[in-house]
Amino acid sequence: MRREVAARRFPQLGYYNIAGNIGGEPLNSEMSVGDSIDDLADLLGDLVEVLWRWDNTSSIDALWHLDLSYRQHWGSHLRALQLYLHEFSTHVHSPLQAPSGPRN
Asked: What are the sequence ranges of the domains in the chain?
């Protein structure tokens, strides 16, 4: 469901290129493909989990989960998505426009 919400709110976003193994030997990196809608849905899911833990377990548990999920999952998605959105907004579509109609 989160993917559908993100796709409805940002229909102009799509797939983008990601350089792999950026910490490796220069000029020997493979490319992969990122999915901006999937990135947004994953970010939302992980942050909703943190909020749930804050409300239902403890602040310590929520902050531990936030740190762990950032380092192991959504931190790299966020960075790649940030680069894509910068490129998208400055070279593909300027300015980035929200879709018209009611917000769900």
From this structure: 2-20+29-92
